[in-house]
Input
Amino acid sequence: MFDDVLLEHAHGIQNRRGMSAFMSFTLEAAIVAMVIIIPLMITQTLPVPELSTMLVAPPPPAPPPPPAAATQATRPPVVKTTTTQLDALRTPTKIPQTINTAPEPANPAPPSEVAGVPGGVAGGVEGGTPGGVLGGILNSGTAPPPPKLERVKVSQGVTQGLLIHKVEPQYPAIARQARIQGTVVLNAIISRQGQIQNLKVISGSPMLVPAAIQAVKQWRYKPYVLNGNPVEVETSVTVNFNLSNMG
Output
């Protein structure tokens, strides 16, 4: 009797374990089914702006540039036919009695041997271009004279070699008493004859400038010759005032 009770108890435990395993399997299958089916049932709508962008067709390509306008056909030059040419092309109405058999000249005179050219100028030469003077100028063999220079600018070192008469300046008494010494620089214009025409002060003490101008006015130079002709010269003149050299 005790054995029957134990067997019945063991059989009940086994039945409960089988039922628990079945329910656990069923629950897990239901959960898996829900996880798979629910996302398929719920659809997500696309945003309206993105949907419209995706559905709009791309713009058509730009049309090709228009073809270049066809150039107008140039009209052929009009050939004027003289009355003599028309008579030569016209069908003769009668048979001529004589035929001119005179031979044409074998070597016609070249254009250069013609006495004159229409549109030429007086003094032209052979080979000149018709209606112009270019050929006459190029073939004349004479070059235009160089422009005549009125004045040139020369350095002080060059004019010192042309100096033939120099007058030393008188030291001003007021400058000697004030112990003032230094250099006076003048801008000078030398004429074609070698004389000082114009003096302008560039630098120097006001007490020394009058004495320097008075002395330089008396200086004389050799004429400066350029291309065989004497010209005016623009240069600078320096006058030194030193107390140790003045008496």
Remarks:
- The chain has seven helices and seven strands.
- The mean pLDDT is 74.
